[in-house]
Amino acid sequence: MSLNKYVVGLTGGIASGKTTVANLFAEYGIDLVDADIIAREVVSIGSDGLKAIEQHFGQSLLLTDGSLDRSALRAQVFDNPQQRLWLNNLLHPMIRQKMLDQVQASTSSYVIMVVPLLFENHLDSLVDTTLVVDIAPELQISRTMQRDGVSKQQVEHILASQMTREQRLAKADNIIDNQGEYELLRSQVLRLHQQYLQHAADLETNVND
Ligand code: ATP
C-alpha cells in the first residue's frame, strides 16, 4: 500500500458478524473505515454522486425530500448489466477515494476497513492483510432472519449473490470463527489486535529507516 498505515480489510458474508467484530477492535481505540457508510455518503443529498445519478436516470430516482430512492435505483440496474456498469464506474472510484482519505486521516496505530464485498469488488488491493469473519451458511440464514425479519428465501438469494464460504476462506490471511458465544470473539480479536500492532510497528520502522 502506498499509504504509510497498516490497513486490515475485514470482511465476511451477510450476518457473519463484521460489525460485531469491528466494534471490538474499536474498543481498543482502532479507527474503522466502513464501506457501507461511505457508499451511502457518496450518494447523499448534495453529493456529486447523486447529481450524476439524477442527470443519468432522471428525477424519478429521487424521493420527495430530494434523497435517493434506493429501491428505484435497484430496479433500474437489476437485470441491466450496462446500467449497472455505468453506476459502478461512477460510484466505485468515489468510494475507493473516500476510503483512502479516511485511512490517511486516521490517527490510530492501524486501521480496520470493513468491506462486505472486499474480494468481490477487488478492494483487497487497498489493504495490507485480510481478516474474514466466518460462520456456516445455516447460521447466516438464522441470524439474518432473526435480525432483519426476512424470509429464508430472501437470505438464500443474498447468499447466492456473494462469494461462497470456501472461496472467501481461501483468500483470507486470518479467520475469526464467530459460530460460538459472543465471549469467544473477544480473545480472538485481542490476539489479532496484538499481531496487527506488531505489524504496524514493523511498517513504521521500515518507513523511518
Ligand atoms: P451484515 O453483513 O448484514 O452487515 P454483519 O456481518 O455486520 O452483517 P453483525 O450485524 O455483526 O453482522 O451480526 C449479525 C447478527 O448476528 C446480529 O444480529 C448480531 O447481533 C448477531 N451475532 C453476531 N455475532 C453473534 C454471536 N457470536 N452469537 C450470536 N449472535 C451473534
From TrEMBL:
Subcellular location: Cytoplasm
Entry similarity comment: Belongs to the CoaE family.
Protein name: Dephospho-CoA kinase
Catalysed conversion reaction: 3'-dephospho-CoA + ATP = ADP + CoA + H(+)
PROSITE patterns: DPCK
Keywords: ATP-binding, Coenzyme A biosynthesis, Cytoplasm, Kinase, Nucleotide-binding, Transferase
Positions of ATP binding: 15-20
Alphabetical GO biological process terms: coenzyme A biosynthetic process
Pfam assignment, any one: CoaE
Functional summary from the UniProt entry: Catalyzes the phosphorylation of the 3'-hydroxyl group of dephosphocoenzyme A to form coenzyme A.
Pathway assigned in UniProt: Cofactor biosynthesis; coenzyme A biosynthesis; CoA from (R)-pantothenate: step 5/5
GO molecular function: ATP binding; dephospho-CoA kinase activity
UniProt EC number: 2.7.1.24
One cellular component term from this protein's GO annotations in UniProt: cytoplasm
